[in-house]
């Protein structure tokens, strides 16, 4: 949906190219054509370079923000996972990637971990023993076989059908990955699969417990804000600036309408209460979950048209400042960060996590004064929720929270209940 570097997750592509992704539908063609050379000018005024992408030299189609990212990715794991040199469709590596795209992105992340372990083991002499040492290191993190660690989609129990489906997806993926990697590193692969598919399943389970949602904000927002500020200042005396400002504003309003109507929750990051719970486990069952729309296409069309007209009105009521500040489609992913994975949870945390630069490079910052020796904590969940909701969500991480805030809100609820009884 947005082009991003396969190594650092930074946005790739010129302003023009990114606008073409957002306004991809044919009905927006006149809007883009009317902009002429403006996107190019916006790009230059922001000093954002050419935005051109670097492609994998072996022709797999992977794109990068720079040659440095391309080379680093090749050394990290892509040397074993690049599909560029493959010439047959039934190659296990291609089959693995199709399978992962169909069922769960985290399977691709697990493949990167396996390839990285092989590369690291080989760098220290290779063989089964070197591989086993690295496997033990990784299993120091909280983990469990995937079937235990994963969550069922909302409204579904972890019943026999659920287990059969997830086991099937995991085992099929593990078999394909093993076949793909074996010719490159027979000894290391033998070690990785010495317990059958258990280690593969445990790595997936480790992601379930430790992974952090990555959200990289689009650089377009900052580019448009700074350009608009310059144009507002110039527009009183310069009719050309006033005209450009008008075009910029029209574009930003159109984007806000698109965000509300065409782009779903996936890209805007606006999740409903229940969707929040539907993560990987739900993805694995995506084929079985019904869509929200009803059976009556005429009625659905009417509802959709009304919602789109409604969004038009809402957007027209926003000030220029408000539409400029509204989010652009951001990049959503998931990542395993070994340092933060060791931090415990608190509902009143003293650290916050952000992705401030145009990359998946995580920054943890203290938001309260921290005394020497005091534990650093992050919040695993939405902090705004009430104590019951928080507790329900945290149960999925396998514990009942008894942080100071939970205890306080608990006793408040108890006092209220006692008052009612009196
Ligand atoms: Zn990069
Ligand atoms: Zn490649
Ligand atoms: Zn708590």
From TrEMBL:
<feature type="domain" description="SET">
    <location>
        <begin position="340"/>
        <end position="380"/>
    </location>
</feature>
<dbReference type="Pfam" id="PF00856">
    <property type="entry name" value="SET"/>
</dbReference>
<dbReference type="InterPro" id="IPR044237">
    <property type="entry name" value="ATXR2-like"/>
</dbReference>
<dbReference type="InterPro" id="IPR046341">
    <property type="entry name" value="SET_dom_sf"/>
</dbReference>
<dbReference type="GO" id="GO:0008168">
    <property type="term" value="F:methyltransferase activity"/>
</dbReference>
<protein>
    <recommendedName>
        <fullName>SET domain-containing protein</fullName>
    </recommendedName>
</protein>
<dbReference type="InterPro" id="IPR001214">
    <property type="entry name" value="SET_dom"/>
</dbReference>
């Amino acid at each position: 949906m947005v082009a991003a570097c396969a190594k650092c997750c930074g946005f790739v592509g010129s302003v023009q190219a990114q606008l073409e992704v957002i306004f991809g539908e044919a009905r927006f063609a006149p809007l883009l054509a009317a902009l002429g050379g403006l996107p190019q000018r916006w790009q230059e005024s922001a000093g954002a370079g050419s935005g051109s992408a670097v492609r994998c030299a072996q022709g797999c189609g992977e794109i990068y923000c720079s040659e440095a990212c391309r080379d680093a990715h090749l050394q990290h794991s892509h040397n074993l996972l690049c599909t560029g040199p493959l010439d047959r469709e039934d190659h296990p590596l291609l089959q693995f990637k199709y399978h992962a795209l169909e069922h769960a992105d985290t399977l691709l992340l697990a493949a990167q971990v396996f390839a990285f372990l092989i590369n690291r083991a080989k760098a220290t002499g290779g063989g089964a023993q070197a591989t086993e040492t690295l496997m033990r290191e990784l299993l120091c993190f909280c983990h469990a076989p995937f079937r235990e660690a994963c969550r069922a989609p909302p409204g579904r129990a972890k019943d026999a059908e659920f287990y059969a489906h997830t086991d099937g997806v995991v085992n099929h993926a593990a078999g394909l990955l093993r076949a793909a990697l074996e010719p490159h590193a027979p000894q290391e692969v033998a070690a990785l699969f010495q317990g059958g598919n258990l280690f593969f399943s445990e790595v997936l389970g480790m992601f379930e417990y430790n992974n952090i949602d990555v959200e990289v904000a689009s650089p377009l927002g900052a580019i448009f804000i700074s350009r608009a500020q310059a144009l507002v200042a110039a527009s009183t005396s310069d009719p050309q600036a006033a005209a450009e400002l008008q075009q910029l504003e029209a574009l930003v309003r159109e984007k806000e309408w698109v965000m509300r109507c065409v782009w779903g929750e996936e890209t805007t990051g606006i999740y409903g209460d229940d969707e929040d719970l539907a993560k990987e486990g739900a993805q694995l069952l995506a084929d079985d979950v019904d869509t929200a729309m009803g059976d009556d296409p005429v009625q659905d069309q009417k509802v959709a048209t009304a919602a789109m007209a409604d969004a038009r009105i809402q957007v027209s009521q926003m000030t220029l400042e408000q539409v400029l500040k509204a989010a652009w489609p951001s990049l959503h992913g998931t990542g395993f960060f070994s340092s933060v994975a060791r931090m415990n949870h608190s509902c009143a945390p003293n650290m916050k996590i952000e992705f401030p630069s145009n990359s998946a490079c995580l920054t943890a910052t203290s938001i309260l004064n921290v005394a020497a020796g005091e534990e650093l904590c992050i919040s695993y969940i939405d902090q705004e929720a009430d104590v019951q909701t928080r507790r329900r969500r945290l149960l999925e991480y396998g514990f009942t929270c008894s942080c100071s805030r939970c205890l306080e809100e608990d006793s408040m609820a108890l006092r209220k209940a006692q008052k009612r009884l009196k």
